[in-house]
Amino acid sequence: MNAPLSNGLFSLPRLSDKHGRCVTYLRLSITDRCNLRCRYCMPENGVQFLPHARILSYEELERLSNIFIGLGINKIRITGGEPLVRRDCLEFMEKLRLQHPKLDLRITTNGTELVQHLPRLRKINIGGINLSLDSLDTHRFAHITRRDKLATVLSGFHMAMELGIPLKLNTVVQQDTTDDELVQMASLAKDNPITVRFIELMPFTGALVPSQSQQSEPLNLRLLRLFPGLTEMEAKDISTAKIYTMNGYFGSLGIIEGESRKFCGSCNKVRITPTGLMKNCLYDDGILNLRDLLREGADNIEIGKQITAAVWNKQPDGHQAAIQRPGKCENSMATIGG
């Protein structure tokens, strides 16, 4: 049986790195499995999913969450793969909420399983949902995801709006994404209190797909051309996105320049993959094997110390992190934790 969180953990310094950044945000991936096959994320036949024994159990996920919260983490986002395809995902989230009522608890999902879970997500006071949605055209959606699920995803979107759950839409801008598609996606922010965030295509594909950097027009310039009335908002919180308002829009538009890595200077997050590998950056190769520490009997204090030391050595930006890894960053995002 896992030992309860020791009060001694709170005597450890809060998570920070040698570049003066405080880490308060944990992205916790609970599965590498996904029920879509997005062309920019994985091959048509999927990737080779991990055996169950290599995935962190909910007990291990709970213990790690408690350790990170003891080190000053105040925001946890549940990710995947598609987190809602893992059985008992909501039970795990309910348990976290019960133990930590003030925790900013959020989830990222592709929306295919969302409708059935929205009432429970609202009941646990979910801090927000990031919904991945790359097209509003049925045929285009089916082409991108290799699944005909747009109607199901939009049902979840509208239900979340009805329930008043904070929502952000994440749209990956691909090489063949047209201007009309971007305008259509942006229109969702015109009548809804949401942020539609356009994301640079990054190299975590599981397949050979050209990166955003190879496109002729940078994403930020493209959006400014399509929406000349955009006005950048002053950031209230640390964010990977630049957020813009526009006259006549109830919501807002955003840009996430992940491949350009322009937001690294304020990065406040770390990631844990489904196998328990801690990553300071999407572009690093993993810097601490938490699963092995858990299963080899390390106590919470020892794990906390190792986490603290690993975060201290966080690279200044994604470019430096990529240089340190031995190979190219071509893993599927599903195996990393989106």
UniProtKB/TrEMBL annotation:
SMART domains: Elp3
GO molecular function: 4 iron, 4 sulfur cluster binding; cyclic pyranopterin monophosphate synthase activity; GTP 3',8'-cyclase activity; GTP binding; metal ion binding
Catalytic function, reaction form: GTP + AH2 + S-adenosyl-L-methionine = (8S)-3',8-cyclo-7,8-dihydroguanosine 5'-triphosphate + 5'-deoxyadenosine + L-methionine + A + H(+)
E.C. no: 4.1.99.22
Radical SAM core domain sequence ranges: 18-241
InterPro entries, per the entry: Aldolase_TIM (IPR013785), Elp3/MiaA/NifB-like_rSAM (IPR006638), MoaA (IPR013483), MoaA-like (IPR040064), MoaA_NifB_PqqE_Fe-S-bd_CS (IPR000385), MoaA_twitch (IPR010505), MoCo_biosynth_MoaA/MoaC (IPR050105), rSAM (IPR007197)
Keywords: 4Fe-4S, GTP-binding, Iron, Iron-sulfur, Lyase, Metal-binding, Molybdenum cofactor biosynthesis, Nucleotide-binding, S-adenosyl-L-methionine
Domain of life: Bacteria
Cofactor: [4Fe-4S] cluster
Biological process (GO), any one: Mo-molybdopterin cofactor biosynthetic process
Name of the protein this chain belongs to: GTP 3',8-cyclase
Source organism (scientific name): Desulfopila aestuarii DSM 18488
Native organism taxonomy: Bacteria, Pseudomonadati, Thermodesulfobacteriota, Desulfobulbia, Desulfobulbales
